[in-house]
Design goal:
Blueprint: E1 5-8, E2 12-18, E3 33-39, H1 41-51, E4 56-63, H2 66-77, E5 81-88, E6 94-100, E7 106-111, H3 120-124, H4 127-132, E8 135-138, H5 144-156, E9 160-163, E10 182-183, H6 187-194, H7 201-213, E11 218-222, E12 228-231, E13 236-239, H8 252-265, H9 270-284, H10 297-301
Parallel strand pairs: 1-4, 1-8, 2-6, 4-5, 8-9, 9-10, 10-11
Antiparallel strand pairs: 2-3, 6-7, 11-12, 12-13
Bound molecules: alpha-D-ribofuranose.
Alpha-D-ribofuranose binds next to strand 2, helix 1, strand 7 and helix 8.
C-alpha cells in the first residue's frame, strides 16, 4: 500500500527517569524509575499517524547499534514503511534523556546521532515516497537545510505540507513559510518563532496572525490543557481541550500532529482533524512514555468525555 502520510524526521531512544521534580543546575536527585522507550518526534508522529488510521512511511536515519534496530522494529510493528530508515555505519542512534516529574512535566536533552545524517541527498533517494504521499510532515530534530529542502519539494509536488517546528529556538527561515500549509507550534515554539508571549488562546491568536502574515497557509497553536487555536486568513477558532488527568505529557504534541495528519489524509475537515488529534493527544497524556502512550483509532473513536 502506498503511504499517504510521509514523515521526514528523527528517531530517538528515550532514556526516561521519573523523579519527584526536575533537578536544578548542579543538583543530584534520586530518581524513582528508569526505562528505555522508543521515541523521537518524527518516529512518534509516524506511529501516531499509523495507529490513528493512516498508511505511513518514515524517512530518517539510525546508527548501527542496538537502539537503531529496536527503533526500526518498533515502526515495522506498526505497519510503517521503513525502506527509507537508513542505517549509518559507525554512528550512534539518536537518544533523548528525559526526566518526568510528579506533576507530569518533563525536561529533555537530545543527542542527534543518526538524525544528523538525514541530508537532502538521503531524502532525494526516496523522492518517490514524497511523490506518492498526500501529507508530508517535518519537525526540527534533523538538519535545518534538510527540513527546508523537504518543505520546498512537498510544496512543488502540491502535497499538504505540515511543519511541527519542534524544538524551535528562534525564528524560522522566512522562505519556508510559503511552503507550509499547516504550521503546528506549541506555546513556547510560537513564542520562539514570533518573539510574542504565548500563554493563552488570545495571545496564540496574535502569534498566529503574525505567522499568517509571514506567508504560512494555516496555523494551529497547541496550548496543552487550554486547547488549540486554529487560524487561517479567513477565520480563527479556539478548540477547548478534552479534560484528562495527566501522567506524562511526553509526545502529546506528536500524537496531535500524527492524528491531525491521519484525519486530513482520510478526507476529514480541519475542524474534525483538530478534534480527533486533540482526543488522541489527551489520551496519550494519561499514559507514560512516548510511543507506548499513543492511542489507537478505536480508542479515540470510543472516547467518552
Ligand atoms: O516529543 C517527544 C520526543 O521529543 C521524545 O520522544 C524525545 O525523543 C524527543 O525527541
Amino acid at each position: 500500500m502506498q503511504a499517504k502520510v510521509v514523515i521526514v524526521g528523527s528517531l530517538n531512544m528515550d532514556l526516561v527517569t521519573r523523579a519527584p521534580r526536575l533537578p536544578r543546575a548542579g543538583e543530584t536527585l534520586a530518581g524513582q524509575s528508569f526505562v528505555t522507550v522508543p521515541g523521537g518526534k518524527g518516529a512518534n508522529q509516524a506511529v501516531a499517524a499509523a495507529r490513528l488510521g493512516a498508511s505511513v512511511a518514515m524517512i530518517g536515519c539510525v546508527g548501527d547499534d542496538a537502539y537503531g534496530e529496536q527503533l526500526r522494529s518498533a515502526l515495522l510493528t506498526e505497519g510503517i514503511d521503513c525502506q527509507a530508515v537508513t542505517t549509518i555505519a559507525g554512528e550512534s542512534t539518536g537518544v533523548a534523556l528525559i526526566v518526568v516529574d510528579d506533576n507530569s512535566q518533563n525536561a529533555i536533552v537530545i543527542v542527534a546521532g543518526g538524525n544528523g545524517h538525514v541530508s537532502a541527498s538521503v531524502v532525494d533517494g526516496f523522492d518517490v515516497l514524497l511523490q506518492q504521499a498526500e501529507v508530508i510532515i517535518c519537525q526540527l530534530e534533523v538538519p535545518e537545510s534538510t527540513v527546508g529542502h523537504v518543505l520546498k519539494r512537498g510544496h512543488e509536488l502540491g502535497k499538504t505540507v505540515i511543519l511541527n517546528p519542534a524544538p524551535a529556538t528562534g525564528p524560522l527561515p522566512e522562505q519556508w513559510y510559503g511552503w507550509v500549509d499547516y504550521l503546528i507550534p506549541n506555546e513556547s515554539e510560537a513564542t520562539a518563532l514570533t518573539g510574542l508571549p504565548v500563554d493563552s488562546p488570545a495571545s496564540a491568536e496574535s502569534a498566529a496572525k503574525t505567522l499568517l502574515a509571514s506567508g504560512v497557509g494555516k496555523v494551529v497553536v497547541t496550548l496543552g490543557e487550554q486547547g488549540a487555536l486554529f487560524a487561517s486568513q479567513e477565520r480563527v477558532e479556539h478548540f477547548p481541550a478534552p479534560r484528562v488527568k495527566p501522567v506524562d505529557t511526553t509526545a502529546a504534541g506528536d500524537t496531535f500532529v500524527g492524528g491531525f495528519a491521519a484525519a486530513l489524509a482520510d478526507g476529514k475537515s480541519e475542524a474534525e482533524a483538530i478534534r480527533f488529534g486533540q482526543i488522541a493527544a489527551a489520551l496519550s497524556v494519561t499514559r507514560s512514555g512516548a510511543q507506548p502512550s499513543i492511542p489507537t483509532f478505536a480508542e479515540v473513536q470510543g472516547y467518552q468525555p
